[in-house]
Amino acid sequence: MEFKELTVQELAHGYVWDAEVGLYHCIFCGETFEKGLIYRSRSRMTSARRAMAEHILDSHNGVFYGLMSLDKQIHGLSDSQKDILEGMYLEKGNREVSEEMGISAATVRTHKFHIQRMKREAKILLALLEQIENEQILQERKHLEQSGAKETVSYPNIPSKEPEPAEHVQPSLIGNSLHPFFTQYNLK
Ligand SMILES: [Zn+2]
Predict the structure, then answer these.
(1) Using one digit for the tens of pLDDT, what is the confidence trace for 27-58?
(2) For the whole prediction, is pTM greater than 0.85?
(3) Within this chain, do residues 85 and 117 fall inside the same structural domain, yes or no?
């Protein structure tokens, strides 16, 4: 199984569910658990899904540390970013993290701000790639584009309202760049 094929949800859970064969696959070591079978885990009997979750916690120290221990070339995180993320994961305050890292609390806050910015950028990149790679989105867009062309022919008398362009700004960029959603997003 190629790493790049995993979804964010699968990465976040630490396993892949293969419905065709009824198997849970650990994304870190490839161990499988078969749905319907009863497993012995932590000295008692349990379901495949529960055994999968316990395996990830017991064998890989949980999904968080499993992902953090991946090669830097895969997750792309610096050592500082990993320290900051671990502090957040362990619910440590900025002061405690700053003392452990030997940096100021203000720098910790700056790191956190950058991580939130990376999160926003990563999500937008994923959404952009969906427009290119997601077959369902592609098909729907093509369908809408085709039916839109037909409607223009069917209803030629609807007056089109020209948007008033702002100075020095391309009209097509105004809506998205100033939408409250993005403003709120930036402030978080
Ligand atoms: Zn594993």
Answers:
(1) 999 999 999 999 999 889 999 999 999 999 99
(2) no
(3) yes
- Amino acid code (one letter) for 141: R
CA distance 55 to 68: 17
Residues 81 and 66 in one domain: no
Residues 85 and 19 in one domain: no
Q: Which helix (H) or strand (E) holds 131?
A: helix 105-133
Q: Say if CB 12 and CB 3 are below 8 A apart.
A: no
Query: Distance, CA 62 to ligand 1 centroid (Å)?
Result: 10
Q: Which two tokens stand for residue 120?
A: 């926003």
pLDDT tens for 59-93 read 999 999 999 999 999 999 999 999 999 999 999 99
d(CA 79, CA 72): 9
Query: Is residue 133 assigned to a domain?
Result: yes
CA of 56 to the centre of ligand 1 (A): 6
Ligand 1 centroid – CA 65 distance (Å): 12
